[in-house]
Amino acid sequence: MALPRTHFALRFAACLTLTAISACGAGAAQSAAPTTQRPTPLRLDERANHATVSATVGTSLVVTLHSTYWSGLTSGTPDVLSAAGTPRVTRAHTCVPGAGCGTVELALRAVRPGSADITARRTSCGEARRCSGDEGRYSVTVKIRG
Predict the structure, then answer these.
(1) Taking CA atoms, which of 38, 46, 94, 124 is between 20 and 30 Å from 135?
(2) How confident is the model at residue 8, as a pLDDT?
(3) Where along the chain do its domains lie?
(4) Is 66:46 a contact under the CB 8 Å cutoff?
(5) Residue 35: DSSP 8-state
């Protein structure tokens, strides 16, 4: 069965349109500027306590400590490792009073080559339990290269 001329013409036009769109899309994808993604920040928590980590200038770091009893979370050398604001405390909603459930988080940025210590302290390590020994001290050394 032969197709009517108008049907053939419409199918031909549709094929040309699809071919043009495909070609334009391929050309646009090739000529588009590459997107730059921000590097994933270096994330530190209690597991990094007393460790030394390496970073490069421009690296973002996020320190998250899992108790609201931590205080004084800071960089000891802000001209090398600068805090991007103040520590943020997030309290857990499903926590009994006095348990310290939640987090303390600080974002930092490696500004220039050198060494900096990130520190924090706490006196309570749970409900009505004082920290003993090293439990109440958090310290990470960050070595920054250019």
Answers:
(1) 94
(2) 46
(3) 42-145
(4) yes
(5) P
Helix and strand element counts for the chain (H, E): 1, 9
Pick from 110, 117, 115, 124: nearest CA to 138: 117
Name the pLDDT band for 32 (thresholds 50, 70, 90): low
3-state secondary structure of 78: coil
Q: What is the DSSP secondary structure assignment for residue 85, as one 8-state letter?
A: S
Q: What is the pLDDT of residues 64-95, one digit of tens each?
A: 999 999 999 999 999 999 999 999 999 888 88
Q: How far apart are the C-alpha atoms of 102 and 67, rounded to whole Å? A: 5
Fold category of 42-145 in CATH: Immunoglobulin-like (2.60.40)
Task: Give the H or E element holding residue 23.
Answer: helix 5-31
Run of H or E including 31: helix 5-31
Q: Is the dihedral of CA 140, 87, 42, 56 positive or negative?
A: negative
CA distance 5 to 38: 56
Task: Give the pTM.
Answer: 0.72
